[in-house]
Amino acid sequence: MESTVVIGDESTADHALKLARQGRILVWRGDYRNAVQLLAAMRRRVGKVRRGSSPADTFRRYRAAAARRARLLGQVQVDVGPGYALELPHAPDVAEACTLAFGPSTGRMPLTDIMGALGAHRWRVRGVHVPALGARIHPHYGVFAPTRHEYVDLVGSMPWPGPSKVFDVGTGTGVLAALLAQRGADDVVAVDIEPRAVECARANVDRLGLAASIRVGQRDLFPAGTADLIVCNPPWLPSAVSSPLDTAVYDPGSRMLRGFLRGVAGHLTADGEAWLIVSDLAERLGLRAPTRTLITGAGLVVRDRMDVRPRHRTRKDDPLAEYRAAEVTSLWRITR
Ligand SMILES: C[S@@+](CC[C@H](N)C(=O)[O-])C[C@H]1O[C@@H](n2cnc3c(N)ncnc32)[C@H](O)[C@@H]1O
Hints:
The chain has helices at residues 13-21, 32-46, 55-73, 95-102, 111-126, 150-157, 175-183, 195-207, 255-263, 281-284, 291-297, 321-326, and strands at 4-7, 25-28, 76-81, 85-86, 108-110, 128-130, 135-137, 166-169, 188-192, 214-218, 227-232, 268-279, 301-308, 329-335. It is α/β, with parallel strands linked by helices.
């Protein structure tokens, strides 16, 4: 069993890190705001990643550092009472955010989890304005948030094939399903493997008044049957996942992407088409074969492609900054 040590307002980041590296659980008993500052100082000390021998090696180091950082910071924990009562000076009310994210409280937990739930709750309440939709989407904790708009814009601008039935595979918040319904699809089946995403997509569909056109369900890859248009925006980077939150962003071994390409022909109607949205960052980093090779290798035909350069800013200390700056996101129009 890991041994615990009580820390508080007088603790320094260096000392806390030393204890965490020894495998101790650091139970915080000081002011909440000081704990947040302590975590920020610890994060700065463990945040640096050196470049590797290749882009793929740099990426591996970057992911390993993120996992190490999450583990170390996760060792700073707080005692939570029933209903997520936090008996710490200046502690915010975390009850609603944590109950929605984790269910009933279970005692001691990492402060980083509480902070993550609070941040996610702010997004959930406020929502994210999606220009192509002309509406707000409300992401739930752990569900991929459409904070980057360019990939949604691609789906909004591709010539509309007038489908009668549409699948949205890996729907997340339901943002693309909603856009497809807004573009004229009145029979959309939106699926996701993650129960959190299914619940979130349903809530967004209801909120947007689109429940008559969109059905949401839990599924690994495809719904049953065929569709005239199948849209999929899989996680763009192949990498192991170390937390449930990673599954929205990372696709271990490109399982979803490859599974989609392997199965899509069997779910398309005779004249149907698939829209695959994916960035080229993974191939720039040497993590997988080029998207076109994967598509044609699966026996599919590329009919068209629309590209966009992401507008996100890259952080200077990001070891992957030069690759992210050159990243291109594409909508691949694919047929059998
Ligand atoms: C990058 S997010 C895209 C979400 C949403 N479509 C969007 O564009 O904002 C990828 C989604 O695929 C889901 N996913 C991953 N593997 C899946 C699988 N095998 N079957 C269905 N959904 C999957 C994830 O849970 C996540 O919600």
